[in-house]
Structures are given as structure tokens and as C-alpha cells.
Predict the structure.
Amino acid sequence: MSYQQAKQKYAKIGVDTDAAIAKMKELSVSLHCWQGDDVTGFDHDGPLTGGIQTTGNYPGKARTPEQLMADMDKAISLMPGKKKLNLHASYAIFEDGEFVDRDKLEPKHFAKWVEFAKARNMGIDFNPTFFSHDKVKDNLTLTSPDEEIRKFWIEHGKACIRISEYFAKETGVPCVMNIWIGDGFKDIPADRLGPRERYKDSIEQILSQPFDKTLVKPCVESKVFGVGVEAYTAGSAEFSLTFAATHDGCLPLMDNGHYHPTEVVSDKIPALLAFFPEIALHITRPIRWDSDHVVLFDDETREMAKEIVRCNATDRVYMALDFFDASINRVSAWVVGFCSWQKAMLNALCMPHEALKKLQDEANMTELMVLQEDIKMYPFGEVWEEYCRQCNVPSGTEWFEEVKKYEQQVQLKR
Ligand code: RNT
Ligand code: ZN
């Protein structure tokens, strides 16, 4: 079947595949730098902490800013769609032997990333890094009862607001700044309120740093538990959601690895859209826990994309990827994960949502089931290939030949 034939088939159910492809080209998705080096960053030598883990030992990992940028470039050249760069503060680039701690970070430490993003027409999202650092005391940062520790991390958050505003001004694209802390306890705590009150106060102090709300979009990301902090996580769903709801200009961020395994973020998206003008997502693939596997074109991924599209919320939801697999080629991981989300969004744009909603409102659940099942067999692959063609990137598995070559010629020589 050709694209033209596929297009005609979709047209019969009221779907304009050309319009879907055109829409895809406008939607930006944040590509996280941390898949390229297993969340290591450039500002410390210690291990990854905070209850998150990368597993695997695949060769060829990027170890310098140049290598990470080259790997990202390779990935970017192989996937369709508009990308935004997602950085962590730990990816600061120090020059000429300079080093400053996280509370003293300045825009200039990210100038090379700005140059990278601008040259590729990308905006930048940002994340303060509240983990992998010697000032994480007893697994605590912004919730620490040690005021010196807490102050250090508040100053880090404020520095990141200033850097986020710099990113937005330089790129002309608003910067989503996500606050996530792994603070918690391995075993039953005696005080669940104190850490949360301190966390609330800490974020309020961070947000007291003046910034332009149209340029910086602060978010708070919730989590249910982390490795080593199984009994209690300060930034729980209720905490984070309520914080965002009660603080003007602050967005809730949902990571679909951060809930109990039978909860689905696809259902939470419309729930939040009923209240928040804008929300943010971390798109990942949890297997049994927050394992951060590479995103695939699977049922829940498709369902999340459908909710964004059918709620007409493509301009209200900030979409960012958040996975890290160290057991496979890291460039390939980026491409598969990014393309899976692109496929999910394009697939969602190729559905007759209004007709389906009408069936629901008429309580015609029989026909709704029949149609929803029938659409699954539509020639979506043709539409995807056409989208890739228009974006000048290989479709199918042709891109993987490029990755294999790059692995041999570049990554394995490191
Ligand atoms: C951790 C959170 C967080 C991190 C990144 C590196 O569970 O998902 O978003 O993955 O900030
Ligand atoms: Zn996340």
C-alpha cells in the first residue's frame, strides 16, 4: 500500500493524515541529555544517587561534553520532529580548570549548551540536580533538618531559575524548569509532616527568585518511592500536586514511572487538564518499578498521547522524555525512545476523536468498541513513513545501520 492509498482510507473515517503530519512538525518534545552518559554529568566523580539507577555496562558511553554532543547529534539526525534540549545542572561545562559548586552555578557554565541548542534551532529545558552530590545528607536535600544543607540546595534552585531564564532569553523559547528531589526514608519515619513543610518552604524560597513567568515554567515532579527510600518520599503525588495547585505559575509534572503499577498517567492527564492551564510530563517506561526503560510504541504510551490530542491540549502539555538504559547502545536508545513517542503522537492525531466522543455521549458503547478496534488495523505505518520522508530521516530500521557504523567508528574507539 502507498501513502496515497493509506491517506484515502483514513479520509473515509474523517482523518486528514496530511494535517496530522503537518501538526507533528510543530510539536516539540524534550530530548534528555542524560540518556547519553547514564545520568553521570560533568560536575562530580561520585555515583548516581537519589534512588534512581542505571543498569548495564554497554561500551561507548559519552564521557565529555564533546562526546555527549556528538552522540546527541547522531541521534537527532535520525529522528523526525522538533526537539528541545533537556539539561540537568550537573551537565555544567567548566572551562580552564574552573569549578564552582551547584549553589554558585551561572549562565556562563551553560554557554556551550546554548550554542549547541541555538545552532540546531532548539529550545532548552532545565533541571536542578538534587542528587549525586556530597551535600545530599542522609538522603535529604530540600527537606533536610540541617539548615546549612537545606540552604545550599535552595541556593542551587535559585541559581537554576536564573539559568533557566537565560536559556529562554537566548533561545526565544520558554524554559521548563523541573524540581525533583529523591528525599525520603528507607524505613518507617517518625515525622512525615516536618520534611514536607520544609520542602514546601524550600520551593517557595526557590520561587522567590524573581523571574518572568512567560519565560520560565517551574514544575514539581512527584514520586511514589525510590530505591533506598522505600518507606517514605517527601515529594509524593499529593504533595506535588497540591503545591502546584496553590502556587501561581507552578506546574505539576507527572512521570509515568512514579506511580503504583496499576495507576495510569493517561487517565491523570485529563484530570489535571480540568484544573491546570499547563502541565508537564516525563515520558518513560517503568517495568515493575521506576526502571526508566526506553519508551516503546506500547499501549499506555499510545494512550497518553491520545489523551493529549483528544483533550486538544498539545499546547498545554510540555512533553519530555526521561529514560536511561546503559545496557544497549545509547544512541539507539535515544532514537527508539524518541521515535516511539513521535509515533504515539502521530497515531493519536490519526484518530477521529470527535466521532468517537459522539458515540460515547450517545451511550453507543457497542459501536465505540467496534470502531476503536477497527482503527487499530489502519495502515499507520504508511503515514509514519511519509512523515519520516518529509523530515528527511530514514524510516524502518535503516537508521540502525547508521548507528552501527557510528558505534564502530566513534563510540567503541573511546
Ligand atoms: C527520577 C525522576 C527524575 C530523573 C531525572 C534524571 O525518578 O524521574 O526526573 O529521572 O531528573
Ligand atoms: Zn522523571
About this structure: Residues 147-171 form the longest helix (25 residues).
